[in-house]
Amino acid sequence: MRIDVVSIFPTIFDALEVSLLGKARTTGLLDVRVHDLRDYTHDRHRTVDDTPYGGGAGMVMKPEPWGEALDDVTRDAESRPVIIFPSPAGERFTQATARELSTASHLVFGCGRYEGIDERVFDYADELGDVRLISLGDYVLNGGEVAVMAMVEAIGRLIPGVVGNPESLVEESHEDGLLEYPSFTKPAVWREREVPPVLLSGNHGAVASWRREQQLERTRERRPDLLSD
Ligand SMILES: COc1cc(COC(=O)c2cn[nH]c2)cc(-c2cccnc2)c1
């Protein structure tokens, strides 16, 4: 998978080298390219924002740099990319979204800042790829960069070969629509707290039933919304 990221803070994405995705990049499973939006400006101050038409507080990201940046990153695309803009006004990002996007050949992420991006950019981008505004949650960040880091990690780890043990991807929260069961490891007793005896019983059927019940109990308590979907 090829991933292009456009941002006015490209160095933030140096952190992707450190995470599990660093290995995926060296093995060629992931081809991650980060671009500075200011490289697509032509004025002395490398301006990327301006005041909003119609008035109002804050600044809006200008369309021209975005148009040139999106042209550039899609110019040599081997397939029609999915062009994703993190936004508080976007569709909800879930494990199902991550799974869907992990099958794409080419993802382009556009990191908005300020009060957002001139709306005409999304209309233009639709000529270049499938545009998706995606929200990580109902809160506002200063920019899309942190959201892109989270999405790239959630998507990247689902690509075969990126995570060492694919078995570990199956028994995770949200993979089966429920929260994951509690985990324990040695010692069997720690600060007078015992590991649930069923987990030491060697009875795999009883362990599986206990874990399923724990998943349901936790989901009922913490995320009843997942049970009504
Ligand atoms: C401060 O104003 C913002 C911030 C952000 C960064 O993303 C988030 O805050 C976010 C993402 N998931 N949950 C929250 C994005 C936009 C934006 C981008 C494109 C179109 N419209 C708006 C605007």
Radius of gyration: 22 Å
- Output the strand order for the largest sheet: 2-1-6-5-7
Largest sheet: 5 strands, parallel
Helix content: 25-40%
Distance between the termini: 31 Å
Which blocks of ≥5 consecutive residues have pLDDT under 50? none
Q: What share of residues are in beta strands?
A: 15-25%
Structural class, from secondary structure content? alpha/beta
Tell me what the structure shows.
This protein starts with a strand and ends with a helix. Helix 4 (95-101) crosses helix 6 (145-156). The chain is built from 9 helices and 9 strands. By secondary structure, it is α/β, with parallel strands linked by helices. The structure holds the ligand COc1cc(COC(=O)c2cn[nH]c2)cc(-c2cccnc2)c1. Residues 85-89, 112, 115-117, 133, 135-137, 139-144, 147 line the site of the ligand COc1cc(COC(=O)c2cn[nH]c2)cc(-c2cccnc2)c1.
Summarize this structure as a short list of keywords or feature phrases.
single chain, 229 residues, alpha/beta, five-stranded parallel sheet, two-stranded antiparallel sheet, 9 helices, 33% helix, elongated, binds the ligand COc1cc(COC(=O)c2cn[nH]c2)cc(-c2cccnc2)c1
